């Protein structure tokens, strides 16, 4: 194996994201590392849902779903839209959807 050229190392170094960005990325992956939150997020792949609907389809308590959704909202992974007294939750953006779909495709490919 040949030695890496200093110019190539410099190019790689310059392409790395700043520490703040890397920390934020780690936060997102940490959020996705919990199976309960992942069940919630994959349920939201189908569209907007209320807490009680998410709890029903994921077989989790409404309390644990609400707690997870607060955390996911705080990190801009999901958004909520109020309709009277109820909130409807959905994935925050296409990037979150793509991360989930890629993870699903990877796991299904491995199986």
Short description:
The chain is of the alpha+beta class and 111 residues long. It has helices spanning 6-15, 19-31, 35-44, 51-58, 62-74, 94-110; strands at 49-50, 78-83, 86-91.
Please explain how this structure is put together.
There is one protein chain. The protein is of the alpha+beta class. It has a single domain, classed as Winged helix-like DNA-binding domain superfamily/Winged helix DNA-binding domain (Arc Repressor Mutant, subunit A, Orthogonal Bundle). The chain is 64% helix and 13% strand. The protein has a 3-stranded antiparallel sheet with strand order 1-3-2. Strand 2 and strand 3 form a beta hairpin. The longest helix has 17 residues, at 94-110. The protein starts with 5 loop residues before the first helix and ends with a helix. 14% of the residues are buried.
Task: Describe the SSE topology.
Elements: H1 6-15, H2 19-31, H3 35-44, E1 49-50, H4 51-58, H5 62-74, E2 78-83, E3 86-91, H6 94-110
Antiparallel strand pairs: 1-3, 2-3
Helix pairs in contact: 3-4, 4-5
Give me the side-by-side strand order of the main sheet.
1-3-2
Please tally the β strands and state the result.
3
Report low-confidence residues grouped into runs of 5 or more. none
Strand content: 5-15%
Which range best describes the helical content: under 10%, 10-25%, 25-40%, 40-55%, 55-70% or over 70%?
55-70%
- Considering the protein shown, what is the CATH homologous superfamily? Winged helix-like DNA-binding domain superfamily/Winged helix DNA-binding domain
User: Strand pairing plus helix content: what structural class?
Assistant: alpha+beta
Q: What pattern of helices and strands is seen along the backbone?
A: HHHEHHEEH
CATH hierarchy, class: Mainly Alpha
Radius of gyration computed on alpha carbons? 18 Å
Q: Name the average pLDDT.
A: 93
Tell the overall outline: elongated
CATH topology: Arc Repressor Mutant, subunit A
The structural domain count equals: 1
For the record, give the distance between the C-alpha atoms at the N and C termini, rounded to a whole number.
34 Å
Which architecture would the CATH scheme give at its second level?
Answer: Orthogonal Bundle
Largest sheet at a glance? 3 strands, antiparallel
How many helices? 6
């Amino acid at each position: 194996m040949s030695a890496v050229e200093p110019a190539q190392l410099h190019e790689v170094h310059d392409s790395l994201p700043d520490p703040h960005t890397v920390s934020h990325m780690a936060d997102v992956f940490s959020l996705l590392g919990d199976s309960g939150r992942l069940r919630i997020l994959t349920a939201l792949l189908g569209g907007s849902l209320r807490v009680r609907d998410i709890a029903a389809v994921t077989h989790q308590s409404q309390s644990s779903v609400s707690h997870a959704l607060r955390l996911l909202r705080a990190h801009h992974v999901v958004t909520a839209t109020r309709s009277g007294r109820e909130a409807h939750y959905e994935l925050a953006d296409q990037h979150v959807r793509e991360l989930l779909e890629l993870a699903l495709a990877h796991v299904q490919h491995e199986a």
